[in-house]
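TICKET: design request
STATUS: open
ATTACHED STRUCTURE:
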């Protein structure tokens, strides 16, 4: 007699359990912004449970701030500032080692067009100044790297500048790396759908819900207008442009991406957008291709594994890697 009510209770419990696990999940989309590395960073994430998403986003911002603390030349306690002061090799953290090694690889691939030793030059041009000026050629000569070789030499986990006259600046790669770290935090929190945009350095986790993320590429000469859009998931896309940080003087545009050979703003491109597996790689490659110009820049992107890109030349001509042609949508 007792057996039946027990079976009934068990069956009811099972139904309750099933209906609980099969309940429709409430999905929420949360977007937050923060000022990090001098850039407005926007994180969007989709998931179930707004509170959990908010917490994950806040942790992702914290991760980016710690990378700023490691890589910024404006922060005295950063590891890069320590390398810049040191007269012998010093021990660095794994994160710094990773970024310097990636940077070295891109320096070699680009034959020195991407160079991590332009700190002196960047300080000389000082784009943060209220009234920026064009330095004298004699001043530029004093701060230029001596060769197109790597800016650092690495032995195990110890790093030193190749030449103590060089000042490191990782502005062309560190922001991308920080976005990668933010994505890792969001992924570890269990999110499957997120985007992190640090002023054109974009990292994507999954798609935008069921669909891919739709990413706009800024028109380099029409502010607020898009040149094209790309549908992407689980990818990084970074744009380097001469319109990002610049000043005009007597009709000439002076911007923040330098040709290490001349110490002057690189002149062959208006913008370069690179799609890659990680934001750090896309970031460094975009800066490198920008300096190399449309022909050599495109060759660099074509030969890089799982990398696509779009280059707008100084004349406004558009060049693309072969794999991008059927992915792009024109505006
Ligand atoms: P991005 O906006 O990623 O192209 O990087 C530009 C930033 O990278 C500049 O603000 C500098 O800090 C640094 N930079 C400028 N020229 C170069 C170069 N040729 N190679 C590496 N970093 C550079
Ligand atoms: Mg870059």
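STATUS: resolved
RESOLUTION: sequence designed for all positions
ATTACHED SEQUENCE:
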């Amino acid at each position: 007699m007792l057996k039946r009510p027990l079976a009934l209770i068990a069956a009811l419990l099972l139904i309750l359990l099933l209906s609980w696990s099969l309940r429709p999940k409430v999905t929420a989309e949360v977007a937050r912004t923060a000022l990090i590395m001098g850039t407005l960073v926007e994180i969007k994430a989709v998931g179930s449970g707004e509170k959990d998403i908010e917490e994950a986003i806040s942790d992702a911002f914290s991760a980016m701030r710690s990378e700023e603390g490691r890589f910024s030349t404006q922060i005295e306690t950063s590891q890069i500032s320590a390398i810049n002061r040191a007269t012998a090799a010093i021990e660095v953290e794994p994160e710094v080692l990773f970024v310097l090694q990636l940077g070295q690889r891109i320096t070699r691939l680009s034959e020195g067009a991407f160079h991590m030793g332009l700190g002196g030059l960047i300080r000389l041009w000082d784009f943060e100044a209220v009234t920026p000026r064009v330095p004298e050629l004699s001043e530029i000569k004093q701060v230029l790297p001596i060769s197109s070789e790597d800016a650092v030499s690495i032995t195990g986990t110890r790093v030193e500048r190749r030449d103590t006259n060089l000042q490191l600046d990782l502005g062309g790669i560190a922001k991308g790396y920080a976005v990668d770290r933010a994505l890792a935090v969001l992924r570890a929190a269990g999110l499957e759908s997120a985007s992190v945009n640090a002023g054109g350095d974009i990292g994507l986790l999954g798609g935008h819900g069921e669909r891919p993320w739709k990413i706009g590429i800024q028109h380099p000469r029409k502010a607020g207008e898009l040149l094209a859009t790309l549908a992407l998931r689980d990818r990084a896309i970074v744009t380097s442009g001469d319109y990002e940080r610049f000043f005009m003087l007597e009709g000439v545009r002076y911007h923040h991406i330098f040709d290490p050979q001349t110490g002057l703003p690189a002149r062959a491109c208006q913008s370069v957008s690179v799609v890659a597996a990680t934001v750090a790689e896309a970031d460094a490659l975009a800066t490198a291709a920008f300096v190399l110009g449309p022909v050599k820049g495109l060759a660099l992107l074509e030969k890089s594994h799982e990398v696509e890109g779009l280059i707008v030349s100084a004349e406004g001509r558009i060049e693309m890697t072969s794999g991008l042609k059927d992915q792009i949508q024109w505006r």
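CLOSING REMARK: The pocket of adenosine monophosphate (ligand 1) is lined by residues 114-115, 118, 122, 169, 171-172, 240, 244, 256-258, 260, 283, 286-287, 291 (CB under 6 Å). The chain has a mean pLDDT of 94.
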